[in-house]
Amino acid sequence: MPQAEPSISIRRRRTRRTRNIQQLEAAYASLTHLGTRARSSAPHGKNAWLVHNASLEALLKAHEEALMALRTQIELVNKARKAAQVAAALEVVRLEERWRKAVGPLEVEVAIKAGLEEGRRREAEG
Questions:
Q1: pLDDT tens digits, one per residue of 44-100
Q2: What is the pTM of this model?
Q3: Which of 13, 25, 73, 90 is 20 to 30 A from 32 in CA distance terms?
Q4: Maximum Cα–Cα distance for the chain, whole Å?
Q5: Domain locations in the chain?
Q6: In degrees to the nearest 10, what's the CA dihedral of 37, 38, 39, 44?
Q7: CA distances from 13 to 9, 10, 22 (A)
Q8: H/E/C letters for each residue in the chain?
Q9: 49 neighbors 41 (Cβ within 8 angstroms)
């Protein structure tokens, strides 16, 4: 014989019972946690926690100050590097211009000599 579906009121009671059991389990876990916390903080007390927090804050402040000092040093190094690069670029431009001025007459002289050689060769051939 097939079993009949439980009525709606029975399902509601089971759902409520399950929900109540879950709430009781959560309350027990919370109570256990608070009891453990109370036992562990009793010997040390609130002051130990406050002292520990103060030491952590001091450590954080020291690290933040060190970070700011490093960032300042990085900024100074980058500015010096950029200034050196700009100065080097100006020097390179100056040297290139000097090279062009020095090589220009030499190129003309080489071209003249090549032209003279070509002229002599043609005269010799012809």
A1: 677 877 888 899 999 999 999 999 999 999 999 999 999 999 999 999 999 999 998
A2: 0.44
A3: 13
A4: 132
A5: 41-125
A6: 90
A7: 6, 5, 14
A8: CCCCCCCHHHHHHHHHHHHHHHHHHHHHHHHHHHHHHHHHHHHHHHHHHHHHHHHHHHHHHHHHHHHHHHHHHHHHHHHHHHHHHHHHHHHHHHHHHHHHHHHHHHHHHHHHHHHHHHHHHHHHHC
A9: yes
